[in-house]
Fold this protein.
Amino acid sequence: MLQGYTPWPDEVATKYRSNGCWTGETFGEVLERMATFTPTSIALIEGNRKVTYEELDDRANRLAHGFIHLGIKKQDRVVLQLTNTITFFEVCFALFRIGALPIFSLPLHRQTEITYFCEHTKAVAYVIPDVFDRHDYVKMAREVKGKVNTLQHIIVAGDEQEFLNVEALMSEESVDLPNITGSDLAFFQLSGGSTGLPKLIPRTHDEYLYSVRKSVEICELSERTKYLAVLPVAHNFTMSSPGVFGVLYAGGCIILSPDPSPDTAFPLIEKEKINFTSLVPPLAIIWIEAKKTRDYDLTSLEVIQVGGAKCSAEVAKKVGPSFGCSLQQVFGMAEGLVNYTRLNDADEKNVYTQGRPMSEFDEIRIVDEEDQSVAIGDTGHLQVRGPYTIIAYYNAETHNEKAFTHDGFYRTGDIVKQTEDGYLIVEGRDKDQINRGGEKIAAEEVENYLLSHEDVLDAAIVSMPDAFLGERSCAFIISQNAQLTGQALKSFLQLKGIAAFKIPDRFEFVHEFPQTPLGKVSKKSLREIIQDKLATKI
Ligand code: J2J
């Protein structure tokens, strides 16, 4: 058993097996099955390159053999930071086949985050593109490798320089692959987080495949699905709700978009006759606007999902009419629970709610400050337990005590209310997080980076409302250096190497922070201060 991983209690596992949620199948087996049933169907399209199910299966196998030759073993951790490419899938399924555990980092993560993922998991390998979006990942990997002594292999898709090339690792020489079962760990997802450093979410084949299978059913994916992946495939939404894994499970075709802009995505929709895609709310706004002035045939679109952050009713109302398709709201989390509006729901549901839990085995509770259930229709804190919601983060004992209840419910940190017929409406959040158009920022993480600046005495980050992104971040700073500027702090954070979306949008220099009656920093008051300033345009 991997140290730091809390396995499912036996009685819970037995329950989810006997009620049919967990089938024992693994991701490696799913691909093998699809390669047998639909060998010549196209699984993936990236630019002019197309890969069939049989080819994907074969290349994942050859890479699995290559990884074994390299010495990567079952349960070894591998930080995977690939973009929306076919290679992502080859590496991913190769790792699944040998039971090594990918940590799905995002393309925007930089050396501070990657170093942490590698150190925290004692990763043996790190897989990267050479250059993407003008960022040199090889250079970054060199720096990370210099700091992390467990890291043995840097594997590059593209110009590998002194490191290893993915393509060259593909091996014809067959070796025995380890036995992988449904209850084995499959990978780690990243939590949006609220405290300290990002938390890692361990997922088994059983639980994740259940969420994929259920999502496929609800979203009605089939071999005729043509899914455009515009958001990063490594994110839980794009990966499994129903996402790219859902498409592969259903035998459909994934079209990989290198970026989410309408100028890239619209021509792909026209050319490949895309019928399903997933967006975050700000992207939906951009697409709606762009549609007015661009003349592409987008009539193949059947469903546009919007999730990751609250979709305002004004935007939600426009999606269907703008694209002549259905809107599906998705309210999910990498920790588990996913809610969908259903494809045959009335407009009112699609526009005003964030959907309802996907599984009849999802147990949700909406509670007050004392963990007591509130009446239906009242607002409260959302807690959840179920067949695909984790019961503990990896290696985070102290945090787990707070994040989960004694009876195994996950405290989502979301404030919601429920309609009579079980639909959820997201009203807010009690976690110390900023949701910047779907990208999550853990306030404390960024505060700690700021506190490492010699002139910063204290830092507090809060959200400020934004018409486009929903929220942006504002850092309140206490410093004795009157010369210190927001720009200097931005450059400091950039140099430190953190994802760009975490860099505060605005800095406010103050002499003290407002306090709560208990003497803690009152983030509520800080939010009010910045809201007032924005309202008066200071
Ligand atoms: C309001 N808040 C939302 C929504 C997520 C599917 C879809 C999204 C995610 C995701 C995901 C929201 N309205 N529609 O993993 O499988 C906020 C909530 C939630 C947090 C989780 C999936 N959809 N949110 O966004 O782990 O605060 O997952 O707890 O990144 O995003 O963020 P994340």
About this structure: The mean pLDDT is 97. Residues 262 and 286 are 8 Å apart (CA to CA).
